[in-house]
Amino acid sequence: MSRQLEPIARMVAQLSRLPSIGQKSAQRLAYHIIGLPLEEVRELAAAIYQGRKAIRYCDRCGNYATEQLCDICSDENRDGSQICVVRDPRDVAAIERMRDFDGLYHVLHGTLSPMEGIGPDDIRIQELLARLADGKVKEIIMATNPDIEGEATASYIARLVKPMGILITRIAHGVPVGSDLEYADEITLAKAMEGRRQM
Does the predicted model carry a pTM greater than 0.70? Predict the structure, then answer.
């Protein structure tokens, strides 16, 4: 690559490190950024830097926050008797978009994965158990992904929580609304059959 294009190559290299951004997408983004007025580029860079600098983890649930507690944990109108356990803060955002759950969350920041060397001490399980000590929580909703790691994590937490007398539930899995049965795999169909309910 010619010397004058080295700044573009550096931009492409950095942009391609982002998830779901391949080399071609990174190149398109780099060329788009080059075409912007310098003030807009400065604002974009400042927003990214300041946003990252301002975000921290909630001291209670582990969600993204700008203060000690996130907006959800500091909301007194939320139902403190329910905690929905999720893998990461993106899952909190997904459930919140539903606008149907008014309980609290607990973000594990990972799932159990012996193959990758991730055990119970590597994710926020002890913090969850500490939150249950006061007896106010009546239900734990396991909302980890329906993959091997998510299922193993949900089962492990269920074994720890059940002796406390707290109801532990698992979100339903199965055929997505609007999809065709012929395209569903065997595991998805099996989960849909297991989770069937009376009409």
Answer: yes
